Amino acid sequence: MVQKYESPVRIYKYPFELVMAAYERRFPTCPQMPIVLDCEIIDDAETDNGAKRETKRRCKLAVDAPYLFKKIIGIDVAYFIQTNFLDLKTRTLNIEAINETFSSRIEIFEKCRYYAHPENPDWTCFDQVATLDIKNFFGFEHSMEKMGMKQYSQTTQKGKEIIEYFINELKKEGISHVDRWKEDETTEPAATATTTVSISSEKPPLTRDNSILDADYIATYLGQLSPLQESKLVQFRKKIEETNHEGKVPDYQTLLRFLRARDFSIEKAASMLQESLQWREEHRIDDILGEYKTPVVVEKYFPGGWHHHDKDGRPLYILRLGNMDVKGLLKSVGEDELLKLTLHICEEGLKLMKEATKLFGKPIWNWCLLVDLDGLSMRHLWRPGVKALLRIIETVEKNYPETMGRVLIVRAPRVFPVLWTIVSAFIDENTRSKFLFFGGPDCLHIEDGLEHYIPTEKIPSFLGGSCIPTISTVGEAVPSKLYTRCFLSACHCTMIHEGGLIPKHLYKSESVEEHNGVPHGHEHHGLYKSVDLKPGQMFELVIKNTDPKSVLTWDIDVLKNDILFALYRTDKDLEQSFNDSFSSVFDNADMKEGVHYTRLEEKVRCKPKEGVQGSHEMATAGTYVLQWMCPPSCDGPAQLMYFHEILSSANYKGSMTSLQSGFSSNSLQSR
What we know:
Layout: E1 2-6, E2 10-12, H1 16-24, E3 36-47, E4 52-62, H2 67-73, E5 77-87, E6 92-99, E7 106-116, E8 124-134, H3 141-172, E9 177-178, E10 191-192, H4 215-222, H5 227-243, H6 252-261, H7 266-282, H8 288-291, H9 296-301, E11 304-309, E12 315-319, H10 326-333, H11 335-360, E13 367-372, H12 383-399, E14 404-412, H13 416-424, H14 429-432, E15 435-439, E16 470-472, H15 481-489, E17 495-497, H16 522-525, E18 529-533, E19 538-545, E20 550-560, E21 563-570, H17 585-588, E22 597-606, E23 611-618, E24 622-629, E25 638-647, E26 652-653, E27 659-663
Parallel strand pairs: 12-13, 13-14, 14-15, 15-26, 16-17
Antiparallel strand pairs: 1-8, 2-8, 3-4, 4-5, 5-6, 6-7, 7-8, 9-10, 11-12, 18-25, 19-24, 20-23, 20-25, 21-22, 21-24, 23-27
């Protein structure tokens, strides 16, 4: 197995010659690297009138491994051969190191480079590449790989610290400048004592085609990264550069987001990014901020807008979903236009994150979404609306990974778990972990309330805060540019539309194509399971709950004939049965209703082409049973599709009231 590590560029704000003087001080040993026991010069030669020097050292290193491991392999120290190629004319030092110990079983090759900064000759750059090739190591290949990663991380982190330490030592000795090598000199540059240091006080404008990734840039724009993550980022950029010969290479923030989304797998991230870049080109996404024209209906009725920042500096977007007329929006602007609106918001978010980074002086690489669900009802579960929402989620997940830092769901009503059941399975697991739910009308005066995440003075008045946003009344249009202007000026008002029902005369057509039979996503995502039942036959789903106050939610679609649905609970430990049964698990266990088990919801009769959604707070641990039955009186078999999910109590904040099953037929009107 071969592992490659590559560090970003480190920048020393000192001339190359002074850095070299400091570098020489680290031999044969230095206190910052106790692992290096000794370095013996075995060859040293100068050429070109002293301008070039080749030095070979044999370095003795302590094996940083558990005692038992060292006993098994039979060594306490390892030897490396390091060769330095110094060129004072070009102001470069190239270093190569390779292991001598166990060289037939494992090959460690490291290449480092010091060189004058290409845009500021008074600064010095450093980069580092290492490969680890483990051929055969007594069955401990994985352990050696881990130790190699650890050693690389340690040396990368210590390298700059060591140079800085010895430069300070030189300064204490009165040496703060070293003359450059000149053609007519016959001796190597000498260190001189002077207080004058030719160092620029300002960082040069690096060519922000991102050709140089330095430590300062990482700290300012990317945040804390491990040496291995930095290495992956550098390699990822090079891979994208190699494949995008003519195309534009995204900035490091974008590259890092795609890497994080694929757990720093370069191959997976590259595949995801290439697909996204092609999608952006096909749909002209790079031009959307300048070319997008907000439809009048959206300006008048879309209840969302940017609203200051959260406590971590993330741009905050507020969406009053409960006030949104989903059917009216779809019928008036269409699904494609609603998707385009979402993409415009996402592009605004990317721009605002960069501006927030400059404003707060720290990396802001995602934004915060607050969703107010006050007013959410079964009409929001209209099938084409859910279909459009799932399409939007899928598109955003693919092309804007890791842009969502936190999602605050507030004033979640009883119907919300039903919508969450349908939608959550389409959301990336990592994104889902960022959701926080606040049930009940009060999301402030509870433990871990909104004030923990949003500055008190920025919490909107409609959520109980003191900030009074400019609320656009129903039907009042406001220029879309006002959103950004209010956001950037940090004024006391931001624009958030109130929403409301869209008049039918604004509809483009009188109907939106209804989904026939199977809910959107069933065919592609395999979320729903199909069950066929003969008259009198039943199917029961046994759920063992060990998380009190978690929420069980379900979504059922009846495709053929009537179905009876009920929910039960028992303290007994029941097992799931997949047999074609005409009897209940309670019958098999010889249990009596009201004694050994309880019916939590009366039987609901569901007819063909009806959808049934519901939720139940599982207040206590125990066994819960979802039961479907084809009535014996049916003239033929019944067919249904179902999906269920458990919303963890840890992810739900506030009270939860169980919702009895509600109907949402495929032709259900939203009003």
